[in-house]
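Feature request, filed as a ticket because there's no other form

It would be nice if the structure record came with a short human-readable summary line next to the C-alpha cells. Right now we just get the raw output. Example of a typical job, pasted below so the devs can see what we mean:
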Amino acid sequence: MRKLMMLGLVLAIALAGCKKPEPPPEDLPPPPPTADELYAQMRAPLEVLFSAGNSGASITNAQRNEAVNGLRPIHMRMAAEPNGQPAKQRMQRDLEDLVKLAVKNQSYRVVKGAIEAFKLFAPGEKKFDADEEYADLVLARPSVKITGFFKLDGEPVVFLDVTDADDASKKETYKVREGENFHEVLQLLRVIGNNQGIELLYIPIDQKWVVNSD
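Raw output as currently delivered:
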C-alpha cells in the first residue's frame, strides 16, 4: 500500500512537471495620466502668458490668442480623464494668481489672456469682469504718429495719423490744436517744447501718454 502511494505521488509530480505553462495574460492598458501630467498638458500652451507675467515682458495679440486657443481642446479633454478634476483645479488657481500679478504689473495683454483662459474653467465666475473691461479699454487705445507741425494764427497745429488698435489697415489723419478732442477717444493736451512731441489723453480711462516726433 505504501509503495502504491509513493508511486502515485511520483506520477503526480511528473504530470505536474509536464503540464503546459499557461499563456501570459494580455498586455494591460497603461494607467491614466496623473494629475501632474494633465496639468503640464494644460500649462504648455499658456507658457507664453506665465513667462510674460513673471518677467514683465510684452506679448502680441497673436501670441495671446494662440495661447488661449491652444488650451481649449486640451481643456475639453479633461472631462474624460479620471484625474482631470484636480489638474483643472490647480490650473484655475494658477490662472487666478497670474491675473492678479499681471494687473499689478500693468501687463494688460497678459491680463486679458489669463482671464480668457480662467473663464474656460469657471465660465460663470464674474470676479475678474472689471479687470477684463479695463484691459479691453487699454488694449483698444489707438496708436498715434506725428506727421507734421505748423502754426495757425500763432497757435500750434499738429498733423496726426491714428491707427486702429485691432486693425492696422484702419488709419485716419487729423489736424489738431491743443485742447481739442479727436478720433472720439483722444485729446491733444499740449505740444512739448519746440515740437519735440505731444502729450495726449486717452479719454475712456483718463490715461496720459507722450508721443515723440520722429
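Something like this underneath would help us a lot:
Residues 130 and 192 are 34 Å apart (CA to CA).
The chain has a mean pLDDT of 91.
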